[in-house]
Design a protein that fits this description.
The complex is a heterodimer of chains A (about 425) and B (about 425). Chain A is of the alpha+beta class and about 425 residues long. Chain A has helices at about 40-50, 60-70, 105-115, 125-140, 150-160, 175, 185-195, 210-215, 265-280, 285-295, 320-335, 345-360, 365-375, 380-390, 395-400, 420; strands spanning about 1-5, 10-15, 25-35, 75-80, 85-95, 120, 125, 195-205, 240-245, 250-260, 300-305, 310-315, 405-415. Chain B has helices at about 65-70, 80-85, 110-125, 130-150, 155-165, 175-180, 185-195, 210-225, 275-290, 295-300, 330-345, 350-365, 370-385, 390-400, 400-410, and strands spanning about 1-5, 10-15, 25-30, 35-40, 50, 60, 90-95, 100-110, 200-205, 250-255, 260-265, 310-315, 320-330, 415-425. The chains are: A alpha+beta (about 425), B alpha+beta (about 425).
Chain lengths: ~425, ~425
């Protein structure tokens, strides 16, 4: 496997050459500094580009073409990455060795047509399609409560911070109202000009046949953003608990933990092992004690967000068990602080981390992510990760355990109570 | 050991059946790091009335037993926890239960043979006590409640319940909060002893392995264990009527946009087609009629009847196929009419049919690049047809437009159940 980054006039091209896969995968990212009021327009733009274009005006035309190109997979996701916002297009198609000669280039061209040749006339996006897509974005924003797990995390983040962590990825209705087919075209032009464009391509690729990108990508300013992706939180208040109710059977618990001035090594590696031991999987302290010993939940997990330097804990419980669950969690947090965990716990967690790294090489999109997160400065490359994780000691973990603090506890309280059934 | 080529996929499959009846399938893929091993019993939520091994009378067990049993198989007499065992090599260990099967699995890179041995050992050493059965009830209660609140999972379960009359596929895999509180350790042992016999199970390993080593390890492992002689398991058969139990129903959930679900119930006994062909044809037809490539989907969006694509899937029993359609819409009645009308009008061209075949062929190549999809395909083949399809590529190539047309034209789209899902309040 060979990786090279070619800095072009208008974009960065990252080529990963390997003959390991039957597919070729492409990812094209547009990145700029995050602004709360721009999230909605970027979501809408993302959906507009992937659902309609000049050559393929309707999403039906697009779908038929994907089938004709041997079921090529295209998709796009707008997402937050710390201080930045990214619109990311993905494509996965069969190496032409398995289909027909010339399909590689045709497939790439298809994706580029969608992104760079939009359904625009007289400096406006096609009104009919614009209205359709706007409606889907509106539905997405207004139905955030449909997924209680996701909703409880949104509310948790909003109670912890008023910066980028708290911004809703789905966007805001008040911003959506201001968008029309004309001003979104203006915005689109600014994206082509001012967003940093990174293209990743992995597979058995002939580099000489990648000129096609140059044909489509022109006049980008190649702004060099100095600020890192890492964010500092901006707390709103000192309240510890936030509750909201919902007429559901299950209550969703979401806890947010902040960290005190961790070093880069602590944040990326020590905190990772700490979280794996505490709530990383079925062998973790929380799973074993809250679920297995006390039968309070089906799932309980912790995970870390390196860019915002926080840890989150999620669990689904009965509302009446809320206090007991928090007590049990506190006991486990205290034990971690006192170093009451074994060398085996550390070695197991380290092994899980290492396997996770090795696994990256099995999937093309995971390999792209590896180079991508290193390009953005979030995580180190796998090789470095494997070296660094070996250095983490028990002392390091105890020290980090004492720098992890509960910041907020959010409970989405399910008000349907099935007490009667338990008497059986 | 039998070796077969998986045509056009650059892969081989190795098969072996042991003396005790256990079947083994291995697909080596040595350019990846991971190994995915599954150990599956041909036993899911639908086998809930049967004659327990060593008995004569048919019994009925509480709903949700297969899934409950899956949780409890992890319990070991020596108090050791399988999760702990697997974590020492950094491997993932898990299990899942469906209507048709229960699978125990691990994913890992190191100590593969040791991990494989342990997979067989922990699944083949049940240890159920009143206490450990009681302990699990709170955990499963939370799991069931999680699904009950889920607007993407719960409506489908209600609709399936309304669509079948006799067949236990109507009952959701996990059972209900009430039914799981009835489960006893005796129920678990009866089900376990009947359905976890090696002759009712199979192992499938995909990924970075040497087939000979895998088969030898499993052979050695089984040699030291004693099992009763394999007997045919007597499971209740159902004379499921063709009609649906309830033609219309309404539920309320915490959702913003109302939903409508339609299930079409087809008798697929005398089609002259294999189950695989039936599945492909139904998928092709539904996709061409309602999918993102359809004219209807485009028109419904333009007319503001739907904003998101319509979702569809199907489930099969020995006798029926249930096609489920799911959509978010404020205009439920209008949408039902449109879909009904569309299904009854057969106008699929040969060109469109061939495009769907092309998608099928491409998807089997995609599948072959992923050890999880490969393993999943083997499991589904065994559960559905009791044999592996070695030539999936040709299967798609050979699908015939005339067969397709005849099959679809004979389907009765009048036979359906509708579920309205409305927001609470």
């Amino acid at each position: 496997m060979k990786y090279q980054k070619i800095v072009k006039d208008n974009y960065n091209l990252h080529i990963i050459n390997t003959d390991k896969f039957k597919t070729i995968n492409v990812r094209i990212n547009f990145k700029r500094k995050i602004k709360k009021e721009e999230i909605t327009i970027r979501n809408l733009l993302n959906d507009l580009l992937i659902n309609t274009s000049k050559k393929y005006p309707t999403s039906r035309d697009i779908e038929i073409e994907t089938e004709d190109l041997y079921n090529v997979g295209v998709g796009s996701t707008p997402y937050k990455s710390g201080n930045y916002h990214i619109i990311s297009f993905r494509e996965s198609f069969l190496d032409e060795k398995y289909t027909e000669k010339g399909m590689n280039e045709k497939s790439i061209e298809f994706l580029l047509e969608l992104i760079f040749n939009p359904n625009v006339k007289d400096k406006k996006f096609d009104k009919e399609y614009f209205d359709l897509i706007k409606k889907t974005v509106e539905d997405d924003i207004s139905s955030i409560k449909d997924n209680p797990g996701k909703y409880s995390l949104i509310k948790l983040f909003e109670s912890m911070d008023d910066g980028p962590l708290s911004y809703r990825s789905c966007g805001y209705l008040k911003d959506l109202k201001k968008i029309n087919e004309e001003n979104i075209y203006e915005y689109y032009k600014s994206v082509l000009k001012e967003d940093v464009i990174d293209i990743f391509i992995i597979g058995n690729i002939n580099e000489k046949k990648l000129d096609i990108f140059d044909k489509y990508i022109k006049n980008n300013n190649k702004i060099e953003y100095k600020e890192s992706h890492f964010i500092e939180l901006n707390p709103i208040n000192d309240e510890l608990e936030v509750k909201e109710s919902i007429t559901n059977n299950q209550s969703k618990l979401a806890m947010g933990f902040t960290t005190d001035n961790l070093t880069d090594f602590e944040l990326k590696y020590v905190l990772a092992l700490y979280s794996l031991i505490l709530g990383g999987g079925p062998n973790s302290k929380l799973f074993q004690n809250v679920r297995e010993k006390n039968s309070l939940c089906y799932y309980i997990n912790t995970s870390i967000a390196v860019l915002s330097k926080i840890m989150t804990l999620t669990a689904g419980i009965n509302s009446k068990d809320y206090k007991k669950t928090i007590e049990l969690i506190n006991i486990e947090l205290d034990k971690m602080k006192k170093g009451e965990f074994t060398t085996k716990d550390i070695e197991d967690a380290r092994k899980i981390y290492i396997n996770g790294c090795n696994e990256i090489y099995d999937a093309p999109m995971a390999i792209i992510n590896n180079y991508l997160s290193s390009e953005y400065g979030g995580l180190d490359l796998v090789e470095k990760r494997l070296r660094e994780i070996k250095k983490v000691t028990k002392k390091d973990i105890v020290s980090v355990a004492n720098k992890v603090n509960i910041n907020k506890i959010f409970l989405l309280e399910g008000t349907l109570n099935n007490e009667k059934e338990k008497t059986k | 050991m039998k070796k077969k080529k998986l045509n056009k996929l650059d892969l081989d499959i190795y098969e072996e059946t042991l003396d005790n009846g256990l079947r083994i399938f291995v697909i080596p893929k040595n350019d990846v790091n991971n190994v995915y091993a599954t150990f599956t019993t041909n036993y899911g939520s639908i086998q809930n009335e049967f004659v327990p091994i060593g008995e004569n009378e048919m019994i009925k067990v509480p709903d949700g037993v297969a899934h409950f049993l899956e949780h409890k198989v992890f319990e070991q007499k020596d108090g050791k926890d399988p999760f702990e065992f697997y974590s020492k090599s950094g491997s993932d260990c898990n299990a899942n239960t469906s209507n048709f099967k229960t699978t125990y699995l691990f994913v890992g890179q190191d100590n593969i043979l040791e991990n494989l041995n342990y997979l067989l050992d922990f699944v083949q050493a049940p240890y159920f006590t009143d206490e450990n059965v009681k302990k699990e009830k709170g955990i499963i209660e939370q799991e069931l409640k999680m699904y009950q609140d889920n607007p993407f999972a719960h409506p489908g379960e209600v609709l399936t319940y309304n669509s079948f009359i006799e067949h236990p596929i109507k009952i959701s895999v996990g059972g209900t909060v009430e039914s799981i509180y009835e489960i006893t350790k005796e129920d678990l042992y009866k089900c376990y002893n009947t359905f976890y016999h090696p002759s009712n199970m199979f192992v499938c390993v995909t990924g970075n392995v040497k087939p000979k080593e895998i088969i030898k390890t499993i052979k050695e492992n089984q040699k030291n264990k004693h099992f009763e002689e394999a007997k045919k398991i007597k499971i209740k058969t159902y004379n499921e009527p063709d009609n649906v139990e309830k033609k219309e129903d309404t539920i309320n959930m915490n959702i913003t946009i109302p939903k409508v679900l339609i299930s079409y119930k087809f008798n697929i006994e005398n089609t002259g087609l294999s189950k695989k062909q039936v599945s492909s044809f139904i998928s092709f037809y539904t996709n061409l009629k309602l999918g993102p490539v359809s004219l209807l989907n485009e028109r419904l969006k333009k007319d503001n009847i739907i904003t998101k694509d319509i979702v569809f899937y199907h489930i099969k029993t020995d006798k029926h196929l249930l096609l489920v359609i799911e959509a978010d819409t404020k205009k439920q009645k209008e949408l039902i009419n449109e879909i009904d009308k569309e299904f009854k009008l057969f106008n699929i061209t040969l060109k469109e049919f061939n495009r769907e075949k092309k998608v099928g062929i491409a998807s089997c190549i995609y599948m072959s690049d992923n050890i999880f999809s490969l393993n999943g395909a083997v499991m589904n083949d065994i559960i559905q047809d009791n044999k592996v399809e070695y030539n999936l590529y040709n299967f798609y190539k050979k699908l015939d437009y005339k067969d397709f047309t005849k099959f679809i034209k004979n389907l009765n789209f009048e036979n359906r159940s509708i579920l309205y899902v409305n927001p609470k309040n």
